[in-house]
Amino acid sequence: MDRPAIERILSHAPIEWLMEDSNPSIRFLTLRDVLCVREGDPRLRLARDAIRSSSVVSRILSKQAGDGHWGNLNSPYSPKYKASYWQMIVLGLLHADGSDERIKRGIEHIFRFQQRSGAFSAETMEQHRARYESHLRKGKIMPPFEEWSAGLVREQEISCLTGNMISALARLSYGDDSRVKRAVRWLVEVQNEDGGWKCPYWRAHFRDKHACFHGTICVLEGFSELKPEAITRSVENAIDRGVEFMLMHRLFKADHHGYAVINEDWKTLRFPWFAGHNILRGLDVVTKLGFTEDERLTDALDVLLGKMRPDFRWVLERGNTGRMLANLEKEGGPSKWITLTALRVLRRISRQWEC
């Protein structure tokens, strides 16, 4: 790793730009994650308070139904990225106020879709019943509903979604909730033999032996948001194995075939990243979990540094523009979210920038 280059970037970081009042979430995270302002500092409190009335948070909450859901009451996952699960993920990324009654109603709505196992499912029995009845109306010969639907909800208990919900709920101050702890235990239980995670019951991939990068990074990000006291020995072991899975692949390369790039799209800088993996998300999560010295980060870090503009900012290459209830930034322009994330990765790696 080119530590002198990292030090130079950090010394020229566009802090004033990141600290502008127009984006209080970025201001708060810059204070906390880049400038290392401690909890209790009035600057941190003022920035956090401003998030409550920010334009993006206000717009998302203005689209919420009175009982806490967004979109279809019984479809928390679809359509992407406008249903209830996705709003909680974005509100978590924004570090909205989890004590807001509207957000609390949204959280309680989301918990309706947590299964006994602790996992969150992408589909509900109500959705399957509607699909079944649609088949009947079209004249299709169907087995009894109970037989046809057996296992369908369980099949959609997926690792990436459950990891994303742990991240969101922890950021919204629900990390100590017993239901979140149950989700954490489930993820530890279904960890794949190679150290990563995949959708454990999805029939299309049930026999797959190799873990999924998307599922793995979502789970690790969820674990990274837990308080230290929530990191039990079993969770710590799961983190170590999961990070090793990512590092043995240099975050984006095959561990065989000469370390060829697995998917060129993983080099795209995007935000929010939802269920998808990319090098910046990988760098952010792995370094947050304390793995900052491993030389296997270098390949992804070189890609990230190669995308930096001369003014020490990074561009939002993809942002799901027009697909969410509220756009966060303009694609193709300098991005505060990408720049903030890149800087906190570099701050963790730098030996001279310890919080």
Structural description of this entry:
The protein has 17 helices and two strands. It has 355 residues and is mainly alpha-helical. It is globular. 43% of the residues are buried. The model has no long low-confidence stretch (mean pLDDT 92).
Q: Descriptors for this entry?
A:
355 residues; mainly alpha; two-stranded antiparallel ribbon; 17 helices; 2 strands; globular
Write the layout of secondary structure elements.
Layout: H1 3-11, H2 15-18, H3 24-34, H4 42-51, H5 55-62, H6 84-93, H7 101-111, H8 125-137, H9 145-149, H10 152-155, H11 159-171, H12 178-189, H13 213-224, H14 233-248, H15 279-288, H16 298-306, E1 314-315, E2 334-335, H17 336-349
Antiparallel strand pairs: 1-2
Count the helices. How many? 17
Following the backbone from N to C, one meets helices and strands in this order, namely: HHHHHHHHHHHHHHHHEEH
The best one-word shape is globular
Helix content: 40-55%
Which whole number gives the mean pLDDT? 92
Class of secondary structure makeup = mainly alpha
* N→C terminal distance: 20 Å
Question: Tally of extended strands?
Answer: 2
Radius of gyration: 21 Å
**What characterizes the major β-sheet?**
2 strands, antiparallel
| Major beta sheet, strand line-up | 1-2
Low-confidence stretches: none
Our estimate of the beta-strand percent is: under 5%
In short:
The chain has 355 residues and is mainly α. The chain contains 17 helices and two strands.
